[in-house]
# Entry
Amino acid sequence: MAAARTSPEPGRDVSRGRIDKREAILDAAFTVFARQGYAQACVKEIAKEAGVAKPTVYNHLNDKATLFREAMVAAAGRVVAEDLAAVEALAVPDGDLRARLEDTGHRLLQAHCHERSRALRRLLHAEGARFPEPLEVVRGRGAGRVTEALAGRLARLILAGRLRAADPETAAEQFLALLTGPMEARTAMGARAVPDDELRAVARAAVDTFLRAFGPETGDGAPVPPEPRGAAGSPETRNAETRNAETRNAETRNAETRNAETRNAETRNAETRNAETRNAETRNAETRNAETRNAETRNAETRNAETRNAVAGSAAAR
# Structure
């Protein structure tokens, strides 16, 4: 007798569908809140973004305020997952330490500067006073978990002698601060996307500073010195080459500006001289015309006087 075919439990399908729909609503809500801000966003637009009816949104989440809180927490969870995945690059404590740290730093910066992460920070700054709960959740479940995970990886590197003896949590906090510290200004408080080559440069600089403080110790207890300044491919050389290139570009732009100003000044001077020449020619022409008119006037007066004298002489002769 053939075995009876089993079918999925109906209750499980309904539950899975409800969870998927809730996640779609939260994702759509975060998108709309990030685009419009809390005050300008409306549940009708969120429902349209999620592809559900407006009453469906209220069936899953009671009101707009609850929707905002839950959407922020869900977005923070995704950001934290990306950060934790980046930290996993340090799970094995062997290999090129600098390269591993730079790769981890680069991946952490990519997650930090992702549009979702930037939007999350913008909303936390804008709505933190009205909704303090998401901010506390992000700090506790988010930053705290990432710091703890990174501290665990650094602790293994310390035990392996790859880093000098130090408090792993302090080292983790310092490493994250070196990475994210410059980014608020570089992203214009989350409004600007940062090019990937700029993220790599920040990661290299952060790792260089971190290893100066936490690099492995030499026999006398001092940290192992970093690559010599000026060594080919070292961060110092790359930074110096970047600064030199920026200096040359700035000098070129300044020279072009000065040349343009010189050309403009010469053009204005030439125009001024031409205008003065034209004015002088106009004045000379007017003077010649006036002299001609005066001469003609004097000649006419002379002829008139001669005519009057001739008429007077003829009258006297008669």
Summary: The radius of gyration is 41 Å.
